[in-house]
Amino acid sequence: MFVMGILFSLISTLLNIVLPLIIRNAIDMRKLIENKMGIQVLLTIGSLLIASTLITAMGNFLVSREGDRLIADVRTKVQTHLMHLPTSFFDNNLSGQLASRVINDASILKNFVSVTIPANISSMFMVIGTLFVLVTLDLKMTILICFCFPLVFLIMVPIGKIIERYSIKSQTELSNLTETTTESLRNIRPVKLNHAEKGVLARFYRYIQNLYHISVKFDEVFSITNPIQTLVSYSIILTLILYGGARVTNGTMTLGTLVSFLIYFFQLTNPINSLAVFYSDYKQAIGATQKINEIMSIPTEDDNGLVISGRQEQNPLILKNVYFAYGQHEVLRNVSLRFEQQKKIAIVGPSGAGKTTIINILTRLYPIDKGELLLGKTPAYKYKLSSWRKLFSIVTQENSILSGSIKDNLLFGLDTKPNNTEINHALNVANLSSDISLMPRGISTIVGEQGVKLSGGQRQRLQIARTYLKQTPVIILDEATSSLDSDSEKNILTSLERLSKDRTVISIAHRLSTIVHSDLIYFVDDHRILACGTHKELLAKLPEYKRFVNEQKL
């Protein structure tokens, strides 16, 4: 369709090249002043104009549609690629700037493909075709026009370079603005609670002012160059009229030829301008492409390997002599843990000891630097990453609620859609049914951004209901009750007790109520496992654990 659109544009250009010749012949043969012939000529000219308009419209539509398809494909590929990049990539890149790559840079490519390229192909065809016709009409006038048009290039080429320079700056500032806006709105409650509006707005205003100053620079350039360009164009027209008029007077050129030359000049102005700034548009598109390619060139997570069978799910998960560091910062040192199936295992220790990192490694969000992660006797890397992560469901202290409805959140991440009976059972397990029954729209209730319309306990129980529907063999509770009051915690613990039946439960917690009944507790401190045992065993044999319990008031 893109080629067809270009073809339509070329046909339209050909008609525009032919039209002045018809007008020339009509004037020279005086057909316009003869009634019958004049009407025929006018009808011919009108028909060509209408045909050219319709063909141009069709060509523009086909090319624009291909541009829209391209931007949809690019955005889909970039977003898909982003979703499969390692977690470490997102540790070092801002979400707003990544969004700018998907949205703003893709739009630049769309404009280049659907507007700039077709326009310049048509422009080249127009310039070459017109010059060929002009040479056949009058060589001297053609030479005069060829001497005049470099003046247009002298104006437009510097403009193009200025546009290129400021466009790059504009893209950078727009990316910064997108990041600032996204971050401030996503964290609007912490912003308000910390009275940080002034600081956030100051940062926002800075990027706005930068964009404003760039726009002013554009205005300065165009306010000077546009009048100069107009002056040059009228000067060329005046030169053509004076020279051509003298030629008409002395009989060396016909009036029709002069009129056709003037029409051709007007038709050539936009194509010449378009060609003059093409390089700048090209550089803009290259810049956007490079930024997108920087993302696309980063290797995605490897999802090759074996699929974990139901029987293999019953094997223990093992971390063996694991070392891990975030950059130069060591987090885990020679850590070994064993998670038997259908057991309740807790990981406790002071903040920064590496508890959450253990979970990140267990779920393969990060690769280990040294050591082994096993399922039974089989190394984790031999299994498909997607199959491995289906072993786990996680309930976190962090907000992992989508901005859609309660039902959207329940179905989030599920391979198969549960029926209403299964959904209602999950809500009962999570002690959420009574709350939802009081909502006018039930499970279709919109929860707001990050679940703001739900209480903290409701958000946690919604995660539990989602986890129940996933029916994974391993459940991870990452500080699942740390931010709740005692009543909410009691409801959550009841829900978790129902949820964890016949499953492996791995808990990271500070509260005694969450870990005291664990089959096994690992105590992590100073980036290593100091000891493991039941709560009573650790109290008896590990002073660090006893002190930690007392200090944390578990």
TrEMBL record:
Residues 317-551 form the ABC transporter domain. Its main location: membrane. The keyword Endoplasmic reticulum does not apply. Pfam families: ABC_membrane, ABC_tran. It is found in: Cell membrane. GO terms for cellular component: plasma membrane. GO terms for molecular function: ABC-type oligopeptide transporter activity; ATP binding; ATP hydrolysis activity. Gene3D superfamilies: ABC transporter type 1, transmembrane domain (1.20.1560.10), P-loop containing nucleotide triphosphate hydrolases (3.40.50.300). This is Abc transporter. The lineage of its organism: Bacteria, Bacillati, Bacillota, Bacilli, Lactobacillales.
